[in-house]
Design a protein that fits this description.
Oligomer: heterodimer
Shape of chain B: globular
CATH architecture of chain A: Orthogonal Bundle
Largest interface: A-B, 44 and 45 residues
Number of strands of chain A: 4
Number of domains of chain B: 1
Structural class of chain A: mainly alpha
Strand content of chain B: under 5%
CATH class of chain A: Mainly Alpha
Structural class of chain B: mainly alpha
Radius of gyration of chain B: 19 Å
Largest sheet of chain B: 2 strands, antiparallel
Distance between the termini of chain A: 10 Å
Amino acid sequence: MTDTTKILPGGARRLHISADVLQLSYRLLAALLICVLLSLLTDSFLSLNNILNVLRQASLMFFVAAGLTLVVLTAGLDLSIGANVGLTACLAGTVIHVTGSPTLGVLVGIGVGAAIGLANGIMVTALRIPSFIATYGMLWILQGVAYWYMAGETIHGFPPGFRQLGSGYFLGLPIPVYLLVIFLAIGTVLAQRTTWGQEIYAIGANPVAARLSGIPVAARLLLVYTVSGTMAGLASIIFLARLNSAEADIGESLTLPAIASVLIGGTSLFGGVGTVFGTFIGALILTLVLNGMNLLQISASWQPLVTGAIVILAVWLDRMTRRRAF
Amino acid sequence: MHEIALNSPTTRIRRIPGVAVMLVALVVCFAATSPGFLTAPNLSNVLVQSTVLLLLALPMTLIIMTEGLDLSMGAVLTLASLVVALVTLATGSVLLGLLAACAVGILFGVANGWLVAILGIPPFVATLGTLGMAQGLSLIVSDGQSVVGMPIAIQKIYSGTVAAVPLPIWMAIVAYVVFYLLLYHTRLGTFVFALGGNRDALRFAGIKVERMLIVVYAIGGAMAGLAGVLMTARMNAGHPTAGLGLEFDAIAAVAVGGTSFERGNGWLLGTLLGVLTVGVLRNGLNLLAIPSSVQVSCIGVLVIMALFFDGLRSRT
């Protein structure tokens, strides 16, 4: 198989890392090109406000997609993240409203997100249900519960301190951007510099070989799905702070863009190839495109169409480059 | 060898209990709890309402048997239901509307098949992408508004009767018979079994596997188009969110009906029973005044249970 090169020691591995860097530079170049194009086409793109806005939106998208990156690295998929964000936002919002304690709300949000991720992991590992269909079933379960729980209501108005988490600034930069840097660092170190991370790549590249070489595949998969759920829980908190309200449907439109971010970022659906940093670049490119459409006054109705096309294009490019390379 | 054993008549008979027992249990359960359930009008209602689902679940069975999936069906149905409404309004011809809706469905089906078979994109992501595109197009062509003012001929498609039997039930019968013949009595049907079970053998035998896959997905798109027409007839309008999530009910019906997601084993009668199970569950929960959000969750649990038992069965 083509993917095995990167788990070989020595020269092959170094080659793989430089290929990663090359892939990332292509994507950064693409992001830059979009920026140049947009600053030529519109007057408002190159304003400080808009750029900070793009950074903040890209950070929010990254939180949803970061955990998903690890799942896709194992050749799995988590379709439930959007619904996870929706339900956890509603539950955390309720807790903050009832108890008045944002800390408790944050803990509940992250805890529920993690529990949902763990349930996904159990379905995939212990019950051996294919990940895309298990998490697809989970999507509808969560969505049903969220709609039933909210019954069309909106939870509105949170403490100003809590809202800073999503809409505040520190030293001129939006607070989500700082969180982005922290989680980008954690994710990169976890994936690239720890044994766990290398095991995740190995599972994605060749699950049979991974099992035969003594990697506890089920335990690692459980971890990966739990991380994905936890990140969705975290994202829901930041969305809550940003939007200052919770509705049952806030996560619905997030799944497709999150998958798009991961795939644009160069993570292969077939497992074993990709980086968490790539997903950030993917989120940035997607945000730039959507922001550009906004500035060019293209109706928001076009967004799902464009996102869907981008998803397909990204997977197709991945297939093409991999075919040509080997 | 494995596949042959799983498709033998004895295994098929042994499978009947799973979904049939569930269906009977649900019927008994709802008959006991809600007095309105076991009445002729309500049962006829269940059948009529299940028709849209059956039109999606039949091709979904074929697609899942090829180890594929079509997540775009609900969105394509929505787009087709808007197209039939818009074209009928614009031209005054129901026939043109119907043809346009089917054409849109086939177009998306062929696109799905092309993405899966020729470009080699995993089906659940390819069809998730086309889901987004169909959803986007629905918003664009309708501007987010309902399309109202349908001529009476459109309504008749849903409310008309032939020989005292509602038209949708005739459509369901015809669709089932056509798919039964297609799956069990044509070369394409045999290839569908082989596409999921042993694709390489089919390729070595010189069969154009890619073309077969595109045909299977195109059939799915065409049926979504037809179901869209029925949906417009039922609501007497085109709604930009009409088919939201219907693909999940279809996948649920197929999964509950015992078609396997990984080994190319399918069973058309199981899908029919699965559709009835989902239909009865929705109707019964409706009668018990349980909100549709909870119904969706129930179906989610049903799917995961069905897949779990399918996994157990394949291991023993």
